[in-house]
Every structure is written in C-alpha cells, then in structure tokens.
Predict the structure.
Amino acid sequence: MARRNRWLPDQHGAWAMLVVPFAAGVFLGTPRRVHLPLLAAWLLGYMATYHAQQWLRLHRISRNPRAPRRHVRPALVFSAAFAALGLPLALLNPWLLVACAAAAPFIALNTWYAWRNKERALLNGLLAVVPACGMLLVTLHLGGGSWSAGRGPALACLLYFAGTVPYVKTMIRERDSRGYYRGSVGYHALALGAAALLSPWLALPFAAYLVRAVVLPGRGVKVPVVGAIEVMGSAALLATLLLAF
C-alpha cells in the first residue's frame, strides 16, 4: 500500500479534471475502442509528468538526495508505458500530435512552476485546467464529432474547473483570505452567466457552484468533505453536458 501511494499522485482534485472532460467528449460523440488506450495513455502521461515535475522540484530544493530519487522510477515506468500506448495512437491518428503540441506550452509552464516550488500558485492551477478541458475536443473528434460541436461543452468544463481553483483555496490554504473569497464568488457569478449563455441547462449546476462558493468557506468543512462535494459537482457537470449538448 505504501509503495502504491508513492507511485500514485496525491493531487486528488486532478483526477476529476482528467476524467470528466475526457468522458464528456467520448459520450457526446460515438464511443470507440480506441478511446480506451487513449484514456490509459492520458492518465499515464499525467502520472509521468507529475513525477518528473516532483523530481525537478525536489532536486532543486531538498537537501535529502533520496527525496527526488524516489520519483525517478515512477517517471521512467509511466513514461515508457505512455510511449508504448501513445506512439501507435499517434501513428494511426497523426492529428493527435497537433493536440499534444497545443498542450505542450501549458505543461511547460506547469513544470516551470514546479521547478520554482510554486505549484500552489493560482495561475499554475488555472494553466493546468486548459489542456485537461481540451481533451473533450480530442475525444469527441476521435469519436466522429466535429470541433465546432465541442466548443460549448469544452468551455463549460473550463468555466467549472477554473472555478474550482480559487474555490478550493478558499476552503483550505486561503480560508482566511477575504480577497480570495471575493474573487471566487465574483468569478462564480460571472461563470453562471456565461454558462447560461452556452445552454440554459448549465444554469442549474452553475447556480449550485455559486451557492457553495458563497456559503461553504469559513464553515470549517473538512478536507474529505470538500473533495466529496467536488466529486458530486463534477458528476453533475458531466450529466448536464450530456443532457444539454
């Protein structure tokens, strides 16, 4: 169990962000067998990147040489597995290389933040949201859907997951910051209006997101409960996307 915990990233909030846009694209289009190896490659690529970034961060700041070293093997194993799945997919679908190139600047900036030991920076979190939500366009297109059909759902994902970044900070690390609280509430109010323009159905979950951003900070909600609420919010988003689009 301890070894597995060292290999799996502990950024629990990232998993919903990785899976929900991916799944939305799959089911808004036509699910195909090729989506399964793509999902595996997507998750393996995330885990490889995570460990590589942790190695960079700890190699720079830690006085204990064993600290960065424990990320080497997971990074190499996950990278090799990613290549084994990703290269055949790219050969069969060369346009996936364009998608990778589009995501590369965001991953590079996330890596820079990790190297600077500023992974918790607000901008770093927002940068990570973009390629994750962009996967909706990739999986939709792989299932025969058009790029234009994916714009609305991808924007809805971007609105939601970008909002989770300041909101979660108001619940944990910045729970005493009035500036973060006002910024989070203001963002969610604007996101509600923008989501309603994409589809009236989206006003329902986004209204709930606004309420939780207003009401929950400062009430001493425990971290596991915060995570459970976000899982429910992600599930509500996925269900609404499939209904609305």
About this structure: The chain is about 80% helix and 0% strand. The mean pLDDT is 94. Residues 35-61 form the longest helix (27 residues).
